Structures are given as structure tokens and as C-alpha cells.
């Protein structure tokens, strides 16, 4: 048993554990360019942070009036993303340190992500985080993606954990909303700091408004200890 009183920790993947958004953006930009949308910008991409690939491409189809099917767009984007993910995904150093700290304490951990199982596997293997994070849930495996709580509740089920004893780490508003809906506490590390005032983040137990620049393994760990009532 860890020193954290039976707490389990569930990590979002993209933008939380790893800086994969540049790869998602590039995969999306290439896919849209191929389908006749040449000027997809980073600002355009930011509105999709925290939303599943399936929902993203469905919105593209409607927004840009694309002729390709949602399935075709999804396959195109995923293929490009996987190529990028395998070769060039960076884990945030302080998040890696936090995972190691929790592992040393014997804290049960899981990953719950809107990405496909293949994308999650590619990123975890490419960064070496798969050695510590073996319980993995993709939104593809549950009925509803974030902001619905399904993916976090399934992660808790696989860990054999009480949702009320789970803490979620999230970078996006839909994920913070999903954690709240699941009855879990949340450490919010906004990927887009300008979104820190989103109402969904107001439900977080710990909101690091400066995002990854403000996050440290020690700050997160100390908050966990305090919130478990152990300090």
C-alpha cells in the first residue's frame, strides 16, 4: 500500500503526459491539405484540444464541407499521426518524474485517453512510459468520449479503484469536466493557458494556471498527500 491512503492516479495522455499536440496538429494539417483545406492553423487546431479524433474529424467534415467520409478522414489522420508519434513524441520531464515518484510509492496508475489504442501504444512505447503505465483505456473502448466520464470510470474499474479515491491529471476542459462527472478529484494543467478560466477547470482540486511550466512532480505529490488527509 502506498503512503497515499489508497489513492489511484489516472493520467490523460496528450498534452498532459506528453507533448503530442504538435504531432496532432501536423497530422491534421496534412490531412486537411490533402482534402482541399490548405490553411489549417495552430489557432484552428486549438479548438480541438481535448476532443477525440473521431469527434474532431466529424466536425471537420461539417465545418469544411469535406467530401471524404468520416471513416476515411479518421484513417488518414490516424495513419499520419502514428508515423509522427512513433518517432518524435516528448514526455514532459516533470510528468515523467511524477510517474516515477508514484511508481516508487506503489500507487496504482492508468492512462485514459481520447486517442485510439494504436496511438496510445505508439506514444507510450516511444517514450518508454509503457514500463510504468500498463493499464490503458482508449475512448474507442467506451460508449462516450470526454466530457462524458466513461473513460475515467472504465480506468477506475480496471484498477479496481473507487472513483472517489481517484485523482485525474488533465490538460483540457473536456477532461476536467469528465473527471468531475466521474466523481474524481482533478489536477488541471491547462495546455492552453489562456483557457485556464474555462468553467470546467473551476471544478479542479488543483489548478496550475501556468500549465506545464508551473507543474512539478513535488507540487503534485504534496497536494496528493494533503488531499489524502495525510499531512
Automatic annotation (TrEMBL):
Pfam families in the cross-refs: Hydrolase
InterPro entries xref list: HAD-like_sf, HAD-SF_hydro_IA, HAD_sf, PGP-like_dom2
NCBIfam families: HAD-SF-IA-v3
PANTHER family in the record: 2-DEOXYGLUCOSE-6-PHOSPHATE PHOSPHATASE 2, PSEUDOURIDINE-5'-PHOSPHATASE
Protein name as it appears in the record: HAD family phosphatase
Species annotation: Streptomyces venetus
Amino acid at each position: 500500500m502506498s503512503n497515499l491512503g489508497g489513492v489511484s492516479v489516472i493520467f490523460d495522455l496528450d498534452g498532459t503526459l506528453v507533448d503530442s499536440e504538435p504531432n496532432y496538429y501536423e497530422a491534421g494539417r496534412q490531412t486537411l491539405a490533402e482534402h482541399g483545406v490548405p490553411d489549417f492553423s495552430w489557432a484552428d487546431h486549438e479548438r480541438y484540444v481535448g476532443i477525440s479524433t473521431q469527434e474532431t474529424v466529424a466536425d471537420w467534415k461539417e465545418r469544411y464541407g469535406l467530401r471524404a467520409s468520416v471513416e476515411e478522414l479518421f484513417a488518414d489522420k490516424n495513419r499520419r499521426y502514428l508515423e509522427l508519434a512513433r518517432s518524435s513524441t516528448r514526455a514532459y520531464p516533470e510528468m515523467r518524474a511524477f510517474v516515477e515518484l508514484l511508481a516508487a510509492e506503489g500507487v496504482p496508475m492508468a492512462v485514459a485517453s481520447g486517442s485510439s489504442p494504436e496511438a496510445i501504444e505508439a506514444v507510450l512505447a516511444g517514450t518508454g512510459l509503457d514500463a510504468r503505465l500498463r493499464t490503458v483505456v482508449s475512448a474507442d473502448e467506451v460508449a462516450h468520449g470526454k466530457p462524458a466520464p466513461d473513460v475515467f470510470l472504465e480506468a477506475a474499474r480496471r484498477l479496481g479503484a473507487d472513483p472517489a479515491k481517484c485523482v485525474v491529471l488533465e490538460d483540457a476542459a473536456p477532461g476536467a469536466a469528465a473527471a468531475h462527472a466521474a466523481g474524481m478529484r482533478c489536477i488541471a494543467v491547462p495546455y492552453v493557458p489562456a483557457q485556464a478560466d474555462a468553467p470546467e477547470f473551476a471544478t479542479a482540486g488543483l489548478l496550475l494556471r501556468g500549465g506545464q511550466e508551473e507543474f512539478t512532480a513535488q507540487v503534485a505529490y504534496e497536494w496528493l498527500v494533503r488531499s489524502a488527509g495525510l499531512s
